[in-house]
Amino acid sequence: MEQLEEDSAVLQRREGEEAEEQQPSDQSGQDGTEDQERHTQGPEQDSGEECDTDLETEDATDKRQSLSCAEVYLQACQRIGTAPIPSFLRHLSEANLNLNHYSVGPLGAKALAIALQMNKNITNLELEDCLLKAQGTRYLMEMLQTNITIQSLNLSNNQLHLEGADIISKMLSDNYYIKSLKLSGNYFDDPAAKYFADALKGDYVIKELDLSHNKFYATGGEHLGHMLATNVGIEVLNLNWNCIRMNGAVALCAGLKVNSTLKELHLLGNGFSHIEAESLGQALKQNSTLELLDLSCNRIRDEDVPLLCHGLALNDTLRVLKLSQNPMTEVGALTLLQTVKNSKSALEGIDISTVFVCEAFVELLEGAHQRRPAMDVRYRVGSSVSRNLAALKVFQKFFKQRNESIMDFFQALDKEGTMKVSTAAFRKAVKEANIPLDQRQLNWLVKKFDKKCTATIIYRLLSCHRSRRTGSRI
Fold first, then answer.
1. How many Cα atoms sit within 13 Å of 100 on the Cβ side?
2. Regarding beta strands 292-294 and 180-182, do their DSSP bridges make them parallel or antiparallel, or are they unpaired?
3. Is the pLDDT of residue 466 over 60?
4. pLDDT tens, residue by residue, 8-43
5. C-alpha–C-alpha distance, residues 157 and 187, integer Å
6. Contact indicator for 337, 377 with CB cutoff of 8 Å
7. What three-state secondary structure class fits 225?
8. CA-to-CA distance for 409 and 210, rounded, in angstroms?
């Protein structure tokens, strides 16, 4: 380590002097019992003379053992020239330290890093939107070389850019303790993706990686795809709201195809369409670990769904598929559900909540529920579809209230006992009986009874037919 060494040593040498002149009074840590206003001050600027110092020396470490973590932090703040954060002092003994949205800045990060080097309580450190920038992140990465307790780190929305990616990737190359890393919204581009990919090839420590809301395009997708092919640790990868498509998406799918650890892949808001759906379908044929796939808000159309279904039909591990906010219609929804119902697919949750489905979809889903009662499918139904689906129920209820059966109704129309009734005769009889069905409901009921459009209802086939909605005999 080459950063901040002198600061920590000088801090300890002056301990005695500062204790005589000004004890770390309750005022410096307790006068501010109210939390510091979050983001009311601008980012602190790190002085050049302090950038060339290291975070720790062995001599300083020995001296610090006689001080509490709070005292070390307060003295570091005084030495560096940054205001202490009361919330840090209050939660030092807890496993979760949440400083999200505080104006920590690079100098504040430096003070935090000095105090956290030997801390053995905090396992989850939240520093989202803290104006850290690359320099502040450098101090934290140096701190992680000695702190072996922190396992989860959130550095999202800190304006890290490529320099920050370089700093973090160097830590990842020698990481044994951080298992969850959130880096959303840091302006990382394709070269930054290469830094991360190179650091994580073959890595087995990181389990959760959030790189959402960055600027990865095709090349970035290629780098991350190559990483997935060799990484043996990541279980959750969040790439939401990037611009991964075409060659980048194909490479990512190729990595998924041979990956053996990934359980969740979040790709919301990228550019997956026809070519990407085909590659993803091929990957799902072989992948045997993925359990959740989020493709919401992409470009998947009805004609792309069958390509995806080629993989779904053979995949027995994927449990949740999210496809909302795609330009697919009831046609794609029906194709998807038919695949799930008639294959070895293990899907239990399907989100197509922005798709208005047809009556056939709802009926098919009811049939699927007989085999998989726990299946949760989210979709939308228009008012006309809802009315049509209620038509059979209304029809059945009408005869039940009169202690009659639907079979009696058809037999009264079938004077010759052929077990057949024309659709025209059926329509006329329904109207004459004043059965409370509107014209659309009646048309749908005719279509349901005369599936082959022969203008004839073979009601003997209905005699053993159970309503999928009610479970009662027609």
1. 11
2. unpaired
3. no
4. 555 555 554 444 444 443 433 344 433 444 554 444
5. 8
6. yes
7. helix
8. 63
* Token representation of residue 137: 């992140």
Cα angle, residue 275 at apex, residues 274 and 281 outer, rounded to 5°: 90
- Structure token pair of residue 211: 């790189």
Residue type, 53: T
Q: Which of 118, 186, 198, 194 is nearest to 154 (CA)?
A: 186
Give me the amino acid identity at 333: A
Residue 235: predicted pLDDT:
98
pLDDT for res 460 = 79
The arithmetic mean of pLDDT across residues 76-90, rounded, is 96
SS3 content of the chain, % helix, strand, coil (to 5): 45, 10, 45
Retrieve residue 177's tokens: 């303790």
Q: Exposure of 37 by Cβ count < 10 A (0-12 exposed, 13-18 middle, 19+ buried)?
A: exposed
Structure tokens at 298: 């992409």
pLDDT tens sequence across 168-221: 999 999 999 999 999 999 999 999 999 999 999 999 999 999 999 999 999 999
As a whole number of angstroms, the distance between CA 344 and CA 319 comes to 12
Please check whether residue 178 is in contact with residue 143, taking contact to mean a CB–CB distance below 8 angstroms.
no
Task: Give the H or E element holding residue 279.
Answer: helix 274-286
Cβ(404)–Cβ(433) under 8 Å?
no
pLDDT confidence band for 451 (50 / 70 / 90): confident
Give the alpha-carbon dihedral of 232, 233, 236, 239, to 10 degrees.
-60
Instruction: Give the pLDDT band (50/70/90) at residue 6.
Output: low
The first and second tokens of residue 416, run together, are 């010759």
Query: Alpha carbon of 448 to those of 212, 305, 342: distances in Å?
Result: 47, 26, 22
Q: β-pairing, 456-458 with 420-422? A: antiparallel
Q: pLDDT digits over 125-184, tens only?
A: 999 999 999 999 999 999 999 999 999 999 999 999 999 999 999 999 999 999 999 999
Check residue 154 and report its DSSP letter. Answer: E
> For 176-280, where are the E strands, in sequence order?
180-182, 208-210, 236-238, 264-266
User: How far, CA to CA in Å, does 161 sit from each of 100, 187, 220, 240?
Assistant: 19, 5, 14, 18
Residue 214 near residue 185, CB atoms below 8 Å: yes
Question: Residue 113 corresponds to which amino acid?
Answer: A
Closest CA to 123 of 146, 143, 153, 90: 153
Q: DSSP E strands: which ranges in 64-191?
A: 96-98, 124-126, 152-154, 180-182
User: Are the CB atoms for 338 and 368 separated by under 8 Å?
Assistant: no
Tokens representing 258 are: 């041979």
Residue in 399, 337, 392, 344 with CA at minimum distance from that of residue 368: 337
Higher per-residue pLDDT: 21 or 313: 313
